[in-house]
Amino acid sequence: MKKGHYGIYGGQYVAETLMKPLNELAEAYEEAIKDPAFLAEFHQILKDYVGRESPITYAKRLSEHLGGAKILLKREDLNHTGAHKVNNTIGQALLARRMGKKRLIAETGAGMHGVATATVAALLGLPCTVYMGAIDVARQAPNVQRMKMLGATVVAVEEGSATLKDAMNEALRDWVTNVDETFYVIGTVAGPYPYPAMVREFQSVIGKEARAQVLEKYGKLPDQAIACIGGGSNAMGLFAGFIDDKDVKLVGVEAGGQGIHTGQHAASINGGRVGVLHGSKTYLIQTDEGNIIDTYSVSAGLDYPGVGPEHAYLADTGRAEYPVINDDEAINAFDMLCRFEGIIPALESSHAIAEAIKRAPTLPKDAIILVNLSGRGDKDMDNIMKYKSSHGMA
Amino acid sequence: MATRITDSFNKAKSEGRGAFVAYLTMGYPTLEASVQAADDLIAGGADVLELGVPFSDPFADGAVIRSAAYKALENGVNLDKVLEAASQIRAKHPTTGLVLFTYYNVIFSKGLETFAAEAEKVGIDAVLSVDLPLEERDELIDVLKPHGISYIPLIAPNTPLSRVIKSAEGLENSFLYIITVKGITGERKELPADLAGHLDEIRAAVKLPIAAGFGISTKAQAEIVSQHADGFVVGTALVRRLGEKGKLEGDILP
């Protein structure tokens, strides 16, 4: 396969001005991940600052209630900053410093990647600008405040649909204009090469740890590994640990919003078709004319009209399956994890939990479902209360 | 393959001037106004027209062309309508070079083969896709070629000379579009100081004509650029004036 391509997917569909910095980035990245000193510093920060390794928790009461497979949770919600995003921003920020870049920029949807980027910018003493759709700025106010506390500049992007894709457009415009001194920290396994490969690599710590932990404690590998998919970085990080274990089913859960048939969803693989956006060829939610459609999910972090190109490839080859979970199922899963386990999950991760809740009763008691609990739900309180009151659930 | 782009550059050269390449966001402020503006531009000296097809996510464009694209989309303008408009322009102007200018997804979404056949039928000479660099362009060029349609490569200020030469390889009825500044489309008061040397270096290295764009809005700037390039591109300034007045009045280049 051509470098940076996953079957027909991936590639480097960018403006010519970005080819030189992308080539420089690819070269620096390929060198860095072979450099023991770089890797040692990366893993030291993951340990001392993020608090890795993150534990595996057996969701005992939930599993027993469902009466089937054991559900295990990989606790990325316990990371510093509250989600898996920080694994990647530390890797990229260290790379930025190694390349002598003077400034970080990032796009963010729900704000978790923005917070994780602002955090490492403070840690390394680099100025940071985060682009965020104006609609997201309004609905994710606590994360905007967190980024500002951490010293980042947050730019509200008013145009287009004023959400994540427009934030990414604006970040690309900033990068193309200030390309020499700026490092663009992309938050998911999307974008042009080397981003999908690089973000996967920095997130692969999730799957590698989880594989060893499950094997040690249970003496076997999980039967299924489940994660939610927006762009797909937490899922790719989990899958990376198991991709060569052909007996482990890989399951990426897309956000069905109000149902794919309503058009109000963010399920690019199930409800989109192949196209080119933000540097790679992949499944996109788009009109017949190739214009990108605004997506919808109760979970802002899954609200992106594309998906990482490697996921598109894994879907086509059948190595991974990509079911859909709608808003109501995710909210139900959120409630169940709160009440049965005393864990408040992020709405994004609740989609993965919901899929596990569906599958567990159909499997024998000695089967293991490993779920990536990619983030904690503190940020989602307002949205959940709003959802519940508008659906007569409060 | 048609030779209208080559002919346009040759004609300008024989007249001792740089070829005038004019960009329009088709459908802004209306599609009728764009077709009228094409007539006015050609009457006012434009040699090659770039017909911009609006896209929902114009990440390489400055504010003026972006808002023009959003407005054009609101007006219901799409690739098919731009091809229709191109056919009207072609009927009236048999020798003008016509370049279809857009983001790749717009073409990809239609289907490359269907697109190429229709573009050939309406008399498009070449395609320029903002987000289709050397690494990825063959998938489009291989489909365009049998239909006699060429490709216009973009060259950035940070494109190494060896890559400039590769970008020009295998292309006829084309030109290199030299982006004068790092950044997005838009008018600028001053052109970069090292532009002349940069253009001279590229011009000496390739056989294809070169045209400089991004930030050129006045006759004076066009004349300076034409001393070092075979042509110049004006976009944002035209789009802005069309938005303000609904048509191009007075001198095409102030």
Structure description:
The complex is a heterodimer of chains A (394) and B (254). Chain A is α/β, with parallel strands linked by helices. In chain A, helix 13 crosses helix 14 (347-359). In chain A, strand 9 (224-229), helix 10 (233-240) and strand 10 (249-257) form a beta-alpha-beta unit. Chain A has helices spanning 19-32, 36-50, 60-66, 85-98, 112-124, 134-139, 141-149, 164-177, 195-218, 233-240, 268-271, 309-317, 327-341, 347-359, 381-390, and strands spanning 5-6, 9-13, 56-58, 70-75, 103-108, 128-133, 153-157, 182-185, 224-229, 249-257, 273-277, 279-284, 320-321, 324-326, 368-373. Chain A is globular. Chain A has two domains: 15-46 and 85-195, Rossmann fold (3-Layer(aba) Sandwich), CATH 3.40.50.1100; 53-82 and 204-390, Rossmann fold. Chain B is 44% helix and 15% strand. Chain B contains eleven helices and nine strands. Chain B has a nine-stranded parallel β-sheet with strand order 5-4-3-2-1-9-8-7-6. Chain B is globular, with a radius of gyration of 16 Å.
SSE layout and pairing:
The complex is a heterodimer of chains A (about 400) and B (about 250).
Chain A: E1 5-6, E2 9-13, H1 19-32, H2 36-50, E3 56-58, H3 60-66, E4 70-75, H4 85-98, E5 103-108, H5 112-124, E6 128-133, H6 134-139, H7 141-149, E7 153-157, H8 164-177, E8 182-185, H9 195-218, E9 224-229, H10 233-240, E10 249-257, H11 268-271, E11 273-277, E12 279-284, H12 309-317, E13 320-321, E14 324-326, H13 327-341, H14 347-359, E15 368-373, H15 381-390
Parallel strand pairs in A: 4-15, 5-6, 5-8, 6-7, 9-10, 9-15, 10-13, 10-14
Antiparallel strand pairs in A: 1-2, 2-12, 3-4, 11-12
Helix pairs in contact in A: 2-4, 4-5, 4-9, 5-7, 9-10, 13-14
Chain B: H1 4-14, E1 19-25, H2 31-43, E2 48-52, H3 63-74, H4 79-92, E3 97-102, H5 104-110, H6 112-122, E4 126-129, H7 138-144, E5 150-151, E6 154-155, H8 161-168, E7 176-179, H9 195-205, E8 210-213, H10 219-226, E9 231-234, H11 236-245
Parallel strand pairs in B: 1-2, 1-9, 2-3, 3-4, 4-5, 6-7, 7-8, 8-9
Helix pairs in contact in B: 2-4, 4-6
